[in-house]
């Protein structure tokens, strides 16, 4: 992208950042404060107002940092939503994976770190071949397959408990990894192709933004769901604990605490998996519809 002697749109960036923070805080505070509480409703309302203000400011600016008009292109819109959904699912998984392997499976620190490796195998082996596959079966089929693998992998992982063999758990990680391998180059290519060459820097920024927002949203959602389920499933003498370590310090019923954690992780992964599948359906549906209009 060419360089310009234009000031950065600090105000627009502040509006978008504020809207994102308000949305995430509302989600995180929901279970504790109540979904109808002033804090939560106010958070969602603030997010909506700030998002609307960001759009309004961008439309009035001659040189906005991120032009809202770009999202009139359904290809760009669906690809950004798709990348957000993929990172939403992956970072939700990262949030519970280490704790699950340590508490439920009894893995040590090193084994826990290595336990996520199966997720990366498809990326390493299959990444160079995604372009050829997309050319053969088409973009929509590639993206649909990606979301099916990621969502299916998360739902499969949600069935894991302390008695599940690691080989089964690793198999579901591979399934999710296949989806990530298909999604990232395909959707990134759509974003790059939807923008003119002089907006290449904007495309890179959009990909970074979707990654950060999707990951933050994924952590917020799965933390909210899993913590609420974990707290409800704790034995009476451990009620009020917010973490597994805190609960274990309050009771001698370690197996019940671990079972409560697993229950929360399963619930969080189920919600995340379903959300990824629904968002994937929206992405593929809009892409399919825009190509046939």
TrEMBL record:
Membrane topology according to the record: Multi-pass membrane protein
InterPro entries listed in its UniProt record: MFS, MFS_trans_sf
Places the protein is found: Membrane
GO molecular function ontology, one term from the record: transmembrane transporter activity
Chief location: membrane
Top-rank taxon, per record: Bacteria
Keyword terms of this UniProt record: Membrane, Transmembrane, Transmembrane helix, Transport
Gene3D superfamilies: MFS general substrate transporter like domains
Any single GO CC term annotated in Swiss-Prot or TrEMBL for this entry: membrane
Parts of the chain that traverse the membrane: 7-28, 34-59, 80-100, 106-125, 137-157, 169-192, 213-232, 267-289
Keyword check for Transport: yes
Keyword tRNA-binding appears in the UniProt entry: no
PANTHER family: MAJOR FACILITATOR SUPERFAMILY MULTIDRUG TRANSPORTER MFSC
Name used for this protein in its record: Major facilitator transporter
Species, as recorded: Amycolatopsis vancoresmycina DSM 44592
């Amino acid at each position: 992208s060419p360089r310009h002697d234009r000031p950065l749109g600090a105000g627009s960036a502040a509006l978008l950042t504020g809207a994102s923070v308000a949305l995430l805080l509302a989600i995180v505070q929901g279970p504790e404060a109540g979904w109808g509480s002033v804090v939560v409703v106010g958070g969602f309302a603030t997010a909506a107002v700030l998002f609307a203000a960001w759009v309004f400011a961008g439309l009035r600016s001659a040189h906005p940092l991120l032009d809202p008009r770009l999202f009139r292109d359904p290809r760009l819109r669906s690809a950004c939503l798709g990348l957000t959904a993929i990172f939403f699912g992956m970072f939700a998984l990262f949030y519970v994976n280490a704790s699950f392997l340590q508490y439920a499976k009894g893995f040590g620190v090193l084994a826990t770190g290595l336990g996520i490796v199966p997720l990366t195998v498809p990326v390493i082996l299959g990444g160079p071949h995604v372009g050829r596959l997309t050319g053969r079966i088409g973009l929509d089929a590639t993206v649909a397959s990606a979301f099916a693998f990621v969502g299916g992998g998360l739902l499969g992982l949600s069935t894991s408990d302390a008695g599940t063999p690691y080989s089964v758990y690793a198999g579901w990680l591979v399934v999710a990894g296949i989806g990530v391998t298909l999604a990232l180059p395909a959707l990134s290519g759509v974003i790059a192709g939807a923008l003119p060459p002089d907006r290449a820097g904007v495309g890179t920024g959009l990909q970074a933004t979707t990654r950060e927002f999707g990951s933050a949203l994924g952590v917020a959602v799965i933390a909210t769901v899993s913590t609420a389920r974990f707290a409800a499933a704790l034995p009476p003498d451990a009620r009020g604990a917010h973490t597994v370590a805190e609960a274990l310090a309050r009771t001698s019923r370690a197996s019940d605490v671990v079972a409560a954690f697993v229950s929360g992780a399963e619930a969080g992964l189920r919600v995340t998996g379903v959300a990824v599948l629904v968002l994937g359906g929206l992405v593929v549906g809009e892409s399919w519809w825009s190509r046939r209009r």
